[in-house]
Write a structure and sequence with these properties.
Length: about 190
């Protein structure tokens, strides 16, 4: 029995893009590793990449700051508590019935995905400028790398080679025809 229906959501280009990119198993695994190692918000990673991929170029500082602020509050107040409960329910649920605990965990997982979808909707709505479609693959890839670098500069104090490898994997899936060496994000690490 589904608790939530995705039919209640309005259309969202960012959601559609994020689902396509995240459906690649290595991308999903890389995103989760970055979330675990650095506490990065996967939705903000997708926002940074989608902005460029959609032909909107580089995020303005105010756009990125608004996205980070809104995302951080949503993650802290809604997503993180749901994630905590879902993870807790992976273990023994005694004195509660294990079968019921498993059903509750599934419902919480649905709620967590619903909350992630909501975050992508409000991030999508932050950008009011239209996509121009005038950027080639290389320009889009460079803009995405710049957007990621700007987000990472605000979100974490350091990145190691594992982090850069995961970011490169995600970026290459998003921009297979672009050259990562042309970006300042990956430069000497590839």
């Amino acid at each position: 029995m589904a608790i939530f229906s995705s039919a209640v959501f309005p259309p969202s280009q960012l959601w559609d893009y994020a689902i396509r990119l995240y459906s690649d198993a290595p991308v999903a695994e890389a995103c989760l590793r970055l979330q675990e190692r650095r506490g990065l918000d996967i939705n903000l990673l997708m926002f940074c990449i989608w902005t460029a991929a959609s032909g909107r170029g580089r995020l303005a500082e105010a756009e990125l700051d608004a996205g980070i602020a809104a995302g951080a509050r949503w993650q802290a107040e809604v997503v993180a508590p749901l994630r905590h409960v879902r993870r807790y329910l992976k273990g023994p649920t005694a004195p509660a019935d294990a079968r019921l605990g498993s059903e509750l965990r599934r419902g919480i997982a649905d709620g967590e995905l619903f909350a992630e979808h909501m975050e992508l909707l409000f991030l999508n709505d932050l950008l009011t400028r239209p996509a121009t479609g005038s950027f080639g693959a290389s320009e889009r890839g460079e803009a995405a790398a710049d957007n990621l670098a700007a987000y990472l500069g605000r979100a974490t104090d350091s990145l190691d080679t594992d982090d850069l490898s995961d970011l490169l994997l995600i970026w290459r899936q998003a921009f297979p025809d672009a050259e990562p060496r042309l970006t300042g994000l990956f430069g000497p690490h590839i």
